Amino acid sequence: xxxxxxxxxxxxKKQQSTxxxxxxxxxxxxxxxxxxxxxDPVTLSSGFTYDRSNIEAxxxxxxxTCPVTNQILTSFDLIPNHNLRKMIQDWCVENSKFGxxxxxxxxxxxxxxxxSDVLSSLAASxxxxxxxxxLDLVQKMKKxxxxxxxxxxxxxxxxxxxxxxxxxxxxxxxxxxxxxxxxEEILSxxxxxxxxxxxxxxYLGSQASLRCMLWFLECRDLSSKxxxxxxxxxxxxxxxxxxxxxxxxxxxxxxxFRFIKDPICPKITKASLTVIFCLLxxxxxxxxxxxxxxxxxxxxxxxxxxxxxxRSTCERALGVLDRLCDCExxxxxxxNNCLTWPVLVKKILRVSELATEYSVSCIWKLNKYGRKExxxxxxxxxxxxxxxxxxxxxxxxxxxxxxxxxxLKQMNPYRNGLECIxxxxxxxxxxxx
Length: 433
Hints:
single chain, mainly alpha, three-stranded antiparallel sheet, 3 strands, about 65% helix
């Protein structure tokens, strides 16, 4: 290892004082894939031993050969190497003075039969609405899932999501408050089962289930809020019908707006933006919802959020803003915000391809359906012409290309005599208004 600067001498002295304490891991304790100490050694049909998590990842990636010999495997069975694992544990204990911790004895992976038995019991207990029995069974599955990724795959592959979603719907129909514990546990497990199959979506997308998740967003703790908003995001992203079902529930707009106005955590903010985007994209009720969000002041919040947010949040915020620019009230709010033009132009070619598409779309809508001369002059002053020309040169999607070309043609007559601002100080600009 190379050491730089004034620290060389001190580093050399430290190396000399600890040279006799260096610890070498025996080669047969090291996984050939990760080159780390094995925690759960298993042997392949080729005779070579690997750490279970590493070789499982290798096989799940579609590889059919032994990583060391490159020979085609005659069997995919992973045989636990108990003797080697005990040797590794003994070695860890002997070298504990070097800070080595003893590796735990791996748990036996759950079997499909065990999962099926639990799911059958859960379905039976759900019919009688036995909350305590159901809670025990759900927590048992949660414990299995927390032990290993292998267990999670086994649980999902045996159809757990549909049974859990059915149980969630049944207890949500009965009572949110009385059954809050079992409902929260189910959502916490479903969080690692997305995307859900169609049957699971039907149960989780029922009016009772949607109202329950909205109640969690209003009344429960941070963990329940996170699990609920993620479940709503997954549901609405998979099928537009769920957006229409959620849109008719009273109070949903206000709850989502609060998560944007007063952020709790990035995960909830991102998921809330996605849910709002899906609601605004709903053809049956989008105009009413757009108007409601505009009146709450969402346009200004989005523009401020876009300025300093990281990539994924910025993309989502721009997507929502683009949808709000479809209605007259949204465009009016954007016209009256001094940050609209510098923010939109700044994000072109600066964040991602998707963010660029949304930014161009917003400018195009504000120009096409409103104050054309004002829009063209404003965006020219913050360097839009150069950005759009560069965008065409670099290449973009057909729709974005068409909008960009139209904007450039309309901007051209206004270019003479205008001073373009290449870089914009957002903080000073915002402070001056």
